[in-house]
Protein backbone atom coordinates (compact mmCIF):
# COMPACT_ATOMS: atom_id res chain seq x y z
CA UNK A 1 0.00 0.00 0.00
CA UNK A 2 1.46 3.30 -1.06
CA UNK A 3 0.06 6.47 0.42
CA UNK A 4 0.96 9.74 -1.20
CA UNK A 5 -0.28 11.83 1.70
CA UNK A 6 3.22 12.47 3.02
CA UNK A 7 4.31 14.04 -0.23
CA UNK A 8 1.42 16.45 0.11
CA UNK A 9 2.09 17.23 3.74
CA UNK A 10 5.77 17.82 3.07
CA UNK A 11 4.97 20.14 0.18
CA UNK A 12 2.58 21.91 2.56
CA UNK A 13 5.23 22.37 5.21
CA UNK A 14 7.64 23.58 2.55
CA UNK A 15 5.08 26.24 1.77
CA UNK A 16 4.72 25.51 -1.95
CA UNK A 17 1.31 27.11 -2.29
CA UNK A 18 -0.11 24.08 -0.59
CA UNK A 19 -3.17 25.79 0.84
CA UNK A 20 -4.46 26.35 -2.67
CA UNK A 21 -3.22 22.93 -3.76
CA UNK A 22 -5.05 20.88 -1.15
CA UNK A 23 -8.02 22.80 0.20
CA UNK A 24 -9.34 19.94 2.34
CA UNK A 25 -8.00 16.62 1.08
CA UNK A 26 -6.60 14.50 3.87
CA UNK A 27 -4.79 12.43 1.26
CA UNK A 28 -4.46 12.39 -2.49
CA UNK A 29 -4.18 8.77 -3.41
CA UNK A 30 -3.84 5.32 -1.93
CA UNK A 31 -2.50 2.62 -4.24
CA UNK A 32 -2.22 -1.15 -4.28
CA UNK A 33 -2.08 -3.89 -6.88
CA UNK A 34 -4.57 -6.57 -7.86
CA UNK A 35 -2.29 -8.78 -9.95
CA UNK A 36 -1.07 -6.43 -12.65
CA UNK A 37 -3.95 -4.01 -12.14
CA UNK A 38 -2.83 -0.85 -10.33
CA UNK A 39 -5.66 0.39 -8.11
CA UNK A 40 -5.73 3.89 -6.57
CA UNK A 41 -8.51 5.46 -4.56
CA UNK A 42 -8.90 9.22 -4.83
CA UNK A 43 -10.79 11.56 -2.53
CA UNK A 44 -13.65 13.60 -3.98
CA UNK A 45 -14.18 15.18 -0.54
CA UNK A 46 -16.90 14.26 1.94
CA UNK A 47 -20.67 14.52 2.27
CA UNK A 48 -22.49 16.33 5.05
CA UNK A 49 -25.79 14.65 5.93
CA UNK A 50 -28.24 14.85 8.81
CA UNK A 51 -28.00 11.64 10.85
CA UNK A 52 -31.67 10.92 10.15
CA UNK A 53 -30.83 10.38 6.48
CA UNK A 54 -29.16 7.12 7.57
CA UNK A 55 -30.56 6.32 11.01
CA UNK A 56 -34.29 7.17 10.88
CA UNK A 57 -35.59 3.69 9.95
CA UNK A 58 -33.39 1.78 12.43
CA UNK A 59 -34.53 0.31 15.77
CA UNK A 60 -33.94 3.47 17.81
CA UNK A 61 -33.23 2.01 21.28
CA UNK A 62 -30.72 -0.49 19.90
CA UNK A 63 -29.22 2.24 17.73
CA UNK A 64 -28.75 4.61 20.67
CA UNK A 65 -26.97 1.90 22.68
CA UNK A 66 -24.82 0.96 19.70
CA UNK A 67 -23.83 4.54 18.87
CA UNK A 68 -22.75 5.05 22.47
CA UNK A 69 -20.27 2.19 22.13
CA UNK A 70 -18.91 4.02 19.08
CA UNK A 71 -18.67 7.38 20.81
CA UNK A 72 -21.24 8.79 18.36
CA UNK A 73 -24.30 10.86 19.11
CA UNK A 74 -27.65 10.32 17.43
CA UNK A 75 -28.04 13.89 16.22
CA UNK A 76 -24.62 14.89 14.93
CA UNK A 77 -24.29 15.38 11.18
CA UNK A 78 -22.59 12.53 9.32
CA UNK A 79 -19.57 13.33 7.17
CA UNK A 80 -18.80 10.21 5.11
CA UNK A 81 -15.81 10.41 2.76
CA UNK A 82 -16.23 9.97 -1.00
CA UNK A 83 -13.62 7.66 -2.54
CA UNK A 84 -13.40 7.31 -6.31
CA UNK A 85 -11.46 4.30 -7.61
CA UNK A 86 -8.96 4.52 -10.48
CA UNK A 87 -7.63 1.34 -12.12
CA UNK A 88 -4.72 1.31 -14.54
CA UNK A 89 -4.55 -1.95 -16.45
CA UNK A 90 -2.77 -2.55 -19.76
CA UNK A 91 -3.73 0.41 -21.96
CA UNK A 92 -6.83 1.30 -19.96
CA UNK A 93 -7.31 4.01 -17.31
CA UNK A 94 -10.64 3.23 -15.69
CA UNK A 95 -12.53 5.40 -13.20
CA UNK A 96 -15.22 3.84 -11.03
CA UNK A 97 -17.73 6.67 -10.56
CA UNK A 98 -17.17 10.29 -11.49
CA UNK A 99 -17.60 12.10 -8.17
CA UNK A 100 -19.99 14.98 -7.51
CA UNK A 101 -18.67 17.78 -9.68
CA UNK A 102 -19.34 21.34 -8.62
CA UNK A 103 -23.13 21.58 -8.41
CA UNK A 104 -23.96 19.30 -5.46
CA UNK A 105 -22.33 20.23 -2.12
CA UNK A 106 -19.48 22.54 -1.10
CA UNK A 107 -17.56 19.72 0.58
CA UNK A 108 -17.21 17.53 -2.53
CA UNK A 109 -15.91 17.97 -6.05
CA UNK A 110 -12.22 17.41 -5.28
CA UNK A 111 -11.70 14.61 -7.83
CA UNK A 112 -10.18 16.85 -10.56
CA UNK A 113 -7.57 18.07 -8.04
CA UNK A 114 -6.87 14.51 -6.89
CA UNK A 115 -6.37 13.34 -10.48
CA UNK A 116 -4.13 16.32 -11.11
CA UNK A 117 -2.03 15.44 -8.05
CA UNK A 118 -1.64 11.94 -9.45
CA UNK A 119 -0.60 13.29 -12.85
CA UNK A 120 -3.66 11.93 -14.66
CA UNK A 121 -5.37 14.33 -17.10
CA UNK A 122 -9.14 13.99 -17.73
CA UNK A 123 -8.51 13.14 -21.39
CA UNK A 124 -6.39 10.13 -20.35
CA UNK A 125 -9.37 8.39 -18.74
CA UNK A 126 -10.48 5.67 -21.17
CA UNK A 127 -13.52 4.37 -19.25
CA UNK A 128 -15.85 5.73 -16.55
CA UNK A 129 -17.77 2.86 -14.98
CA UNK A 130 -20.70 3.67 -12.69
CA UNK A 131 -21.92 1.81 -9.63
CA UNK A 132 -25.14 3.86 -9.72
CA UNK A 133 -26.68 7.19 -10.63
CA UNK A 134 -26.78 9.12 -7.33
CA UNK A 135 -25.41 12.67 -7.36
CA UNK A 136 -22.15 11.95 -5.51
CA UNK A 137 -21.28 9.27 -8.09
CA UNK A 138 -22.58 10.73 -11.36
CA UNK A 139 -22.70 14.52 -11.34
CA UNK A 140 -18.94 14.88 -11.93
CA UNK A 141 -19.41 13.80 -15.57
CA UNK A 142 -19.94 17.46 -16.52
CA UNK A 143 -17.46 20.29 -16.03
CA UNK A 144 -18.27 23.87 -14.97
CA UNK A 145 -19.31 24.67 -18.55
CA UNK A 146 -21.68 21.69 -18.78
CA UNK A 147 -19.32 19.88 -21.14
CA UNK A 148 -18.38 16.22 -20.61
CA UNK A 149 -15.38 16.27 -18.25
CA UNK A 150 -13.97 12.87 -19.33
CA UNK A 151 -14.53 13.58 -22.98
CA UNK A 152 -12.41 10.73 -24.35
CA UNK A 153 -13.91 8.08 -22.08
CA UNK A 154 -16.42 5.37 -22.79
CA UNK A 155 -19.02 5.72 -20.00
CA UNK A 156 -20.57 2.45 -18.80
CA UNK A 157 -23.62 1.89 -16.60
CA UNK A 158 -25.78 -1.11 -15.81
CA UNK A 159 -28.81 -1.22 -18.07
CA UNK A 160 -31.33 -1.31 -15.18
CA UNK A 161 -29.76 1.70 -13.45
CA UNK A 162 -29.48 3.80 -16.61
CA UNK A 163 -33.05 3.07 -17.65
CA UNK A 164 -34.34 4.08 -14.21
CA UNK A 165 -32.69 7.52 -14.15
CA UNK A 166 -33.20 8.21 -17.87
CA UNK A 167 -36.94 7.49 -17.61
CA UNK A 168 -38.95 10.75 -17.34
CA UNK A 169 -41.53 8.89 -15.20
CA UNK A 170 -38.94 8.51 -12.39
CA UNK A 171 -39.46 12.20 -11.57
CA UNK A 172 -43.09 11.40 -10.73
CA UNK A 173 -42.53 8.18 -8.81
CA UNK A 174 -39.41 8.90 -6.74
CA UNK A 175 -39.73 10.23 -3.16
CA UNK A 176 -40.33 13.96 -3.19
CA UNK A 177 -37.08 14.86 -1.41
CA UNK A 178 -35.15 13.02 -4.13
CA UNK A 179 -36.71 14.77 -7.12
CA UNK A 180 -33.79 17.24 -7.48
CA UNK A 181 -31.35 14.32 -7.58
CA UNK A 182 -33.43 12.50 -10.19
CA UNK A 183 -33.69 15.64 -12.31
CA UNK A 184 -29.93 16.14 -12.03
CA UNK A 185 -29.26 12.56 -13.07
CA UNK A 186 -31.57 12.75 -16.07
CA UNK A 187 -30.05 16.01 -17.24
CA UNK A 188 -26.55 14.53 -17.13
CA UNK A 189 -27.50 11.26 -18.78
CA UNK A 190 -29.24 13.24 -21.53
CA UNK A 191 -26.15 15.39 -22.06
CA UNK A 192 -23.52 12.62 -21.98
CA UNK A 193 -25.80 9.88 -23.28
CA UNK A 194 -23.99 9.23 -26.56
CA UNK A 195 -20.83 8.35 -24.60
CA UNK A 196 -22.67 5.59 -22.70
CA UNK A 197 -22.54 1.85 -23.20
CA UNK A 198 -24.66 -0.52 -21.14
CA UNK A 199 -24.07 -3.88 -19.54
CA UNK A 200 -26.05 -6.63 -17.89
CA UNK A 201 -25.54 -8.25 -14.48
CA UNK A 202 -22.68 -10.78 -14.52
CA UNK A 203 -20.96 -9.44 -17.62
CA UNK A 204 -17.17 -9.07 -17.84
CA UNK A 205 -17.44 -5.47 -18.97
CA UNK A 206 -13.68 -4.99 -19.47
CA UNK A 207 -10.88 -7.56 -19.14
CA UNK A 208 -10.81 -8.53 -15.44
CA UNK A 209 -13.78 -6.33 -14.47
CA UNK A 210 -16.94 -8.30 -13.70
CA UNK A 211 -20.28 -6.61 -12.99
CA UNK A 212 -22.23 -7.93 -10.04
CA UNK A 213 -25.76 -6.66 -9.57
CA UNK A 214 -26.20 -5.43 -5.98
CA UNK A 215 -29.63 -3.85 -6.39
CA UNK A 216 -31.20 -2.18 -3.36
CA UNK A 217 -29.26 0.99 -2.55
CA UNK A 218 -30.55 2.13 -5.93
CA UNK A 219 -32.77 0.20 -8.35
CA UNK A 220 -29.87 -1.05 -10.47
CA UNK A 221 -26.78 -0.60 -8.27
CA UNK A 222 -23.80 -2.66 -9.48
CA UNK A 223 -20.57 -3.68 -7.73
CA UNK A 224 -17.46 -4.78 -9.63
CA UNK A 225 -15.05 -7.62 -8.99
CA UNK A 226 -11.51 -6.84 -10.13
CA UNK A 227 -9.91 -10.19 -10.94
CA UNK A 228 -6.38 -10.77 -12.19
CA UNK A 229 -4.67 -14.14 -11.85
CA UNK A 230 -5.24 -15.31 -8.28
CA UNK A 231 -5.79 -11.77 -6.99
CA UNK A 232 -9.19 -10.12 -6.57
CA UNK A 233 -10.80 -7.08 -4.98
CA UNK A 234 -14.32 -5.72 -5.05
CA UNK A 235 -15.49 -2.18 -5.74
CA UNK A 236 -18.77 -2.18 -3.77
CA UNK A 237 -19.85 1.42 -4.31
CA UNK A 238 -22.67 2.07 -1.84
CA UNK A 239 -23.76 -1.58 -1.42
CA UNK A 240 -21.83 -1.43 1.89
CA UNK A 241 -22.47 2.21 2.45
CA UNK A 242 -20.85 3.05 5.80
CA UNK A 243 -18.97 1.88 8.81
CA UNK A 244 -21.59 3.23 11.25
CA UNK A 245 -23.93 0.24 11.30
CA UNK A 246 -23.45 -1.70 8.05
CA UNK A 247 -20.78 -4.10 9.38
CA UNK A 248 -22.00 -4.61 12.94
CA UNK A 249 -25.72 -4.68 12.06
CA UNK A 250 -26.03 -5.46 8.35
CA UNK A 251 -29.72 -6.29 8.78
CA UNK A 252 -30.68 -2.83 10.10
CA UNK A 253 -32.48 -0.81 7.43
CA UNK A 254 -30.53 2.23 6.22
CA UNK A 255 -32.35 5.41 5.28
CA UNK A 256 -30.23 6.12 2.20
CA UNK A 257 -31.23 2.83 0.51
CA UNK A 258 -34.13 2.98 -1.93
CA UNK A 259 -35.22 -0.65 -1.30
CA UNK A 260 -34.10 -1.18 2.29
CA UNK A 261 -35.00 -4.84 2.52
CA UNK A 262 -33.20 -5.77 -0.70
CA UNK A 263 -30.20 -3.63 0.26
CA UNK A 264 -29.90 -5.39 3.65
CA UNK A 265 -29.96 -8.82 2.00
CA UNK A 266 -27.33 -7.75 -0.55
CA UNK A 267 -25.16 -6.26 2.22
CA UNK A 268 -25.29 -9.45 4.29
CA UNK A 269 -24.37 -11.57 1.27
CA UNK A 270 -21.45 -9.34 0.30
CA UNK A 271 -20.06 -9.20 3.84
CA UNK A 272 -20.21 -12.99 4.15
CA UNK A 273 -18.39 -13.44 0.84
CA UNK A 274 -15.77 -10.75 1.46
CA UNK A 275 -14.97 -12.15 4.92
CA UNK A 276 -14.86 -15.75 3.70
CA UNK A 277 -12.72 -15.04 0.64
CA UNK A 278 -10.61 -12.41 2.46
CA UNK A 279 -11.09 -10.23 -0.58
CA UNK A 280 -10.04 -6.57 -0.40
CA UNK A 281 -13.06 -4.28 -0.35
CA UNK A 282 -13.16 -0.76 -1.79
CA UNK A 283 -16.14 1.23 -0.51
CA UNK A 284 -17.07 4.67 -1.81
CA UNK A 285 -18.04 5.95 1.66
CA UNK A 286 -15.96 3.67 3.87
CA UNK A 287 -13.51 5.36 6.27
CA UNK A 288 -10.17 6.79 5.21
CA UNK A 289 -9.34 5.77 1.67
CA UNK A 290 -12.22 3.27 1.55
CA UNK A 291 -9.89 0.27 1.21
CA UNK A 292 -9.75 -2.60 3.70
CA UNK A 293 -10.79 -6.09 4.71
CA UNK A 294 -13.99 -7.48 6.17
CA UNK A 295 -13.53 -9.56 9.33
CA UNK A 296 -16.06 -11.59 11.27
CA UNK A 297 -16.54 -9.98 14.68
CA UNK A 298 -18.94 -10.58 17.59
CA UNK A 299 -21.51 -12.43 15.52
CA UNK A 300 -21.35 -9.94 12.64
CA UNK A 301 -18.48 -8.13 10.91
CA UNK A 302 -16.08 -5.25 11.22
CA UNK A 303 -14.17 -3.14 8.72
CA UNK A 304 -10.37 -3.29 9.00
CA UNK A 305 -8.88 -0.38 7.04
CA UNK A 306 -5.83 -1.22 4.94
ZN1 LIG B 1 -22.82 7.54 -2.45
Produce a short descriptive summary:
The protein has ten helices and 15 strands.
- Mean pLDDT comes to 91
- Backbone CA Rg: 18 Å
Helix content range: 25-40%
Per DSSP E runs of 2 or more residues, the count of β-strands stands at: 15
What does this protein structure show overall?
By secondary structure, this protein is α+β, with helices and mostly antiparallel strands. It contains ten helices and 15 strands. The radius of gyration is 18 Å and the shape is globular. The N terminus is likely disordered. Bound molecules: zinc ion. Zinc ion (ZN) binds next to helix 6.
Summary keywords:
8-stranded mixed sheet; 7-stranded mixed sheet; 10 helices; globular; binds zinc ion
Q: What topology emerges from the helices and strands here?
A:
Elements: E1 2-3, H1 5-13, H2 18-21, E2 30-34, E3 37-46, H3 52-55, H4 60-69, E4 81-89, E5 92-96, H5 111-118, E6 127-129, H6 135-138, E7 154-158, H7 159-166, H8 170-173, H9 179-192, E8 196-199, E9 204-206, E10 209-213, E11 222-228, E12 231-237, H10 260-277, E13 280-283, E14 291-297, E15 300-305
Parallel strand pairs: 5-6, 6-7, 7-8, 12-13
Antiparallel strand pairs: 1-2, 2-3, 3-4, 4-5, 9-10, 10-11, 11-12, 13-14, 14-15
The structure holds zinc ion (ZN).
Amino acid sequence: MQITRRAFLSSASAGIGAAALVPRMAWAGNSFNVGDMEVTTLSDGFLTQPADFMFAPMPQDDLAAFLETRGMTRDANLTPPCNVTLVRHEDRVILFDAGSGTGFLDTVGDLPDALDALGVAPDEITHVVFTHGHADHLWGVLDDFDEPFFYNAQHMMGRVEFDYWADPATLDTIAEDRVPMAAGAKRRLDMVGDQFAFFEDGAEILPGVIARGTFGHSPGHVSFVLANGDAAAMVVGDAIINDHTAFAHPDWPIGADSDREAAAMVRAGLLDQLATDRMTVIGFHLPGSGVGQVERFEGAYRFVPA
